Amino acid sequence: TWLKGALLLSWLLLACTEKSGTSAPAPAPPPAAPTPPAVNEEARDYNQYTKLRWIDEFNGGTLDQAKWSYELGGHGWGNEELQNYTNSPDNSFLSGGNLVIQARRQQSGANAFTSARLVTKGKQSFRYGRLDVRAKVPKGKGVWPAIWMLGSDFDQVGWPACGEIDIMELRGSRPTELISTMHFG
To answer: Which pTM value belongs to this model?
Structure first.
């Protein structure tokens, strides 16, 4: 019976095909013009980005509150994180021109660990440019240090529509891999 079905399908397809020796096939419609991509009109060679717009060399005794804010809490942040983020000097401090962020095995609410989460939200925003970061990251099972940028319209459109660029992530389960990712709506 499948043979009858195949023959019937073939016959129906042939019956739907126009056969005429006098007319040429209709021309295919022209392809739609592609939408031009957004372009950084100011794009230039890496070394030509000379205008410094923002810097923090972490010189001084305390974190510059005009540049950074602490995000506080221990609700997992969408990644099932096990720490409570604090503004404690036990978790973040300046030392020798470096910002040190230190996770600690320390009970805080329902969380067995504490750490720090620092952001420039509401303090710095830019569209194009050069970004230089120098960082030393921890290794070990369970760590997930990251340096990332989130769209400044996060509160209005949510994630991932606001866009996110993960400059660097290191997952403790894969200590030899650094990950860089772009998220978008």
So the answer is: 0.71
Annotation marks residue 42 as catalytic? no
The answer to whether the peptide bond before residue 27 is cis (omega within 30 degrees of 0) is: no
Q: Among residues 42, 57, 81, 169, which one is catalytic?
A: 169
Say which of 57, 71, 80, 164 is annotated catalytic: 164
Q: What are the two backbone dihedrals, phi and then psi, of residue 141, each rounded to the nearest 5 degrees?
A: -60, 130
Radius of gyration of the chain measured on its C-alpha atoms: 28
Closest to 125 measured CA to CA, from 23, 46, 17, 53: 53
Is 169 noted as a catalytic residue in this protein? yes
Identify any residues that bridge with 166 across adjacent strands, giving them in sequence order: 148, 181
User: What is the predicted pLDDT for the residue at 24?
Assistant: 62
How confident is the model over 142-159, as pLDDT tens digits? 888 999 999 999 999 999
